[in-house]
Amino acid sequence: MYLRREGRPARQTHSRSLFRLSPLLAASAFFSASLGPALIAPPEAQAAGPDTSANDAEVEILIQSVFEEEYSKKQFVEALEKLQLASEVCQQGSCSAKVRAKVLVGVGTVLAGGLDQQKDAVEVFRIAVKEDPKVALLKGFDKGPILDAWHSARGDKPAPTEEERKKYPGGMKAPKGWKSAEAFFYHEEAEKAQEAKKWMLCAGYADDSYRAEERVSTRYLRASCLDSANKWTEAKADYEAVAKDAPELGLKDIAKRAKERFELMDSKMPRVSFKKPSNAEEVVVSIDDVQVPDDKLGVEMAIDPGPRRIRASGKVNGQKLVFDREFTFSEGDSRQIDIQLVPQTSVAKDNRVLKCLEESKSREELAECIGQGTGRAVSVKIGAELSGYHDNDSTDVISPAVAVTVDSPTGGWTLGGSFLVDVVTTASTDIVATASPRWTETRYVPALFGSKKIDDWRVGLSTGASIEPDYVSVAAGANASVDLLDKRVTPSLAYGFGYDIQGRSGTSFDAFSSVIIQNSIDAGVSIVADKSTVITTGFTGIFQTGDTSKPYRYVPLFSEEIVSEIPAGLVREEVDRVRSQVRALEQLPTERYRFALAAKIAHRLESQTLRLDERLYLDTWGVKATTTDAMFLVDVDRFRFWPHVRFHAQTGADFWQLAYPVRQEAGQIVLPNFRTGDRELGPLLSVYGGGGFKVHLGENKNWSVGFSGDVIYTRYLDHLYILERIGAFGALGAEVEVE
Question: What pLDDT does residue 22 have?
Fold first, then answer.
């Protein structure tokens, strides 16, 4: 194959940019002179006008080779680069409209079938059809997502397969209750599409069924599917007709539902009006490529909810100007759009990001390009939260917190910090049992963190502290992750170090203290299973050395004769009556190694997300635990809410005992080597239940407020003093992002 060129090498485009082609970029990438000199015929042919036949043949051969070679080998980016070469041949009329359309069909095929860029594929297919209304999909590439994108672009639906056609051949008798077998067949297909939530396919089949046999129930089915697809204008007309006709046929229930939905739509239908420029002539406005009649400009009109593309063109002083924007209309919206016409070059400038995707040759170039002139080189996110806890064991906690994150999308770095204060007051059974009065204590928790994106890697550092009157902890850590397989797999690794000093309140650390050292390792991997599902797995190891025994916690001891008779849940007064007079402080092992395996799956539905977490835990003290967490998040416009449940179960430590014995040997008091009164080291069950909500505010949704809360029930299976505890946790938060 020979492609005529003007003595320059083929333009090289970085592979990372091509697979992100957008509709505008696709059109400009194939037919804009900005890509450089076109491949043209010899001078003598130019003089007589463009001879497209030779180039047509060469381009068609090139297209065929793309799908025989690169596409079949799943080299989709390379396939687009080769199709770009074909586009250069077709510039400036060097190819026929038929072949230019075929090139675009090739691009759309790669986007839909190879790169899963359905939205972009639909727009490219639309441009192809405008070039040549008779253009068709490439032979052998007319199935699955390619076919779906093609039908979306054309606004039609797939024709029935031969197997489907055989179900109701033309001569077959219609089923009972139907006049037309064809109508019944299409009605069944519409119901299948409705069940699969393929709304426009459902509406198309219902329309075919209604054309074959006019039935009120079929019209209601069509209205329901159009309604779900946000085609309110069409659905509203159907609902109105059904509400009028159904009662005469005895279909009162359908009539009632249709009337209710019609009235609701009528009250919540978004409305729009357009303000034309006073100095413009020949103004043409379109909504999603459907022209608005001239007499409707300036008059408020109904519009379907959801994202809508508004385009306009006109002339000012003889110069053609354009307007091209996308708006999202919510239920009940009423908006006037001021048509501000600008030169065509300004529209390209407005879509600068698309140009960046085309021309950037590295991720760094892309980040720098996107940052220019966006007013968003740095964004600052500020959040505040007030949380609280209360339980029936006389413990209360209140925790105000604030966090700030500074992010640079262009530089690939993030810096942040937070500060939390815990105010704890308690007179729990354990406290009272040691003859301690109610006490209140304050803890301060500052933290800093940062990360940097380097190619496919992200590396980060963090540090923090926890400061109490009798306990000081400092920690630092490092983490790294890398994107693999087009960001579908992201392994990560983190290391943390902690240095804690434990003392007694009112006593200098020099006089009394113990040091606790902690090292931790976290390894995990996040996998994008498909467009809707993310799976994350991880392993955590924590290696702790030092005496973590509480210097205030005295453990009740009992004589060996009555240890076996002590029942679980024995109240404080009875414990004091039968316990030994020997007072012994808590004593724990000085080493503890903890290990956990965790898995999380998040699956996105149409407007909901289901998240499931599971964690398995064990340590060298003998504690084994399982924690299961489930959350179902529902998004409705600016509002998100979620129910939440959690279940936790654990065994006790090897040295855990309901009642510890004390004995005398040779006149000496002998205590158990290890002993504790920490209920969290015993066997228990916990159930959490609650939920929360978050609402985004502001024109750009950069404000948000939210609340979450849980009721926590804990059952202690082998403990003194109490058998159960009921607590409640709640958090009220607010967040704002400043660009």
Answer: 37
Check residue 44 and give its pLDDT.
36
Residues 511 and 596 both lie in one domain? yes
Condensed to tens digits (0 to 9), the pLDDT of residues 687-711 reads 999 999 999 888 767 899 999 999 9
Q: Are 123 and 26 spatial neighbours (Cβ–Cβ below 8 Å)?
A: yes
Say how many domains are in the chain.
3
**Three-point CA angle 485, 487, 490, nearest 5°:** 90
Task: Show the domain range for 724.
Answer: 379-738
Q: Distances from the Cα of 273 to the Cαs of 290, 338, 642, in angstroms?
A: 15, 9, 37
**In the listed set 154, 188, 210, which residue is the last one of a domain according to the structure?**
154
Q: How far is CA 584 from the centre of its chain?
A: 53
Amino acid at 200: M
Residues 149 and 172 in one domain: no
Whether 517 and 658 share a structural domain: yes
Q: What is the pLDDT of residue 267?
A: 86
C-alpha 386/C-alpha 158 separation (Å) is: 55
Four-residue CA torsion sign, 406, 411, 413, 415: negative
Q: What pTM does this model have?
A: 0.54
Q: Do 146 and 182 reside in the same domain of the chain?
A: no
Using DSSP's 3-state secondary structure scheme, residue 293 falls into coil
* 326 vs 95: CA distance, rounded Å: 32
pLDDT, position 11: 33
**Which residues of the chain register pLDDT less than 70?**
1-55, 87-94, 155-172, 344-377, 409-410, 486, 531, 700, 739
Tens of pLDDT, residues 144-172 = 888 888 888 876 655 555 555 445 545 56
Whole-number Å distance between alpha carbons of 404 and 383: 6
Q: How far is CA 379 from CA 38, 43, 101, 456, 694, in A?
A: 42, 55, 42, 22, 21
Provide CB contacts within 8 A for 462, sequence distance 6+: 447, 448, 449, 450, 476, 477, 478, 479
Assess whether 142 and 240 both reside in one domain. Answer: no
Same domain? 556 vs 659: yes
Inside any domain, residue 637: yes
| Helices and strands (DSSP H and E) totals, the chain | 19, 28
C-alpha 304: how far from its chain's center?
25
Residue 728: inside a domain: yes
Structure tokens given for 89: 């041949």
Cβ atoms of 647 and 630 closer than 8 Å: no
> Does residue 123 sit within a domain?
yes
CA–CA separation, 554 and 436 (whole Å) = 11
- Co-location of 389 and 251 in the same domain: no
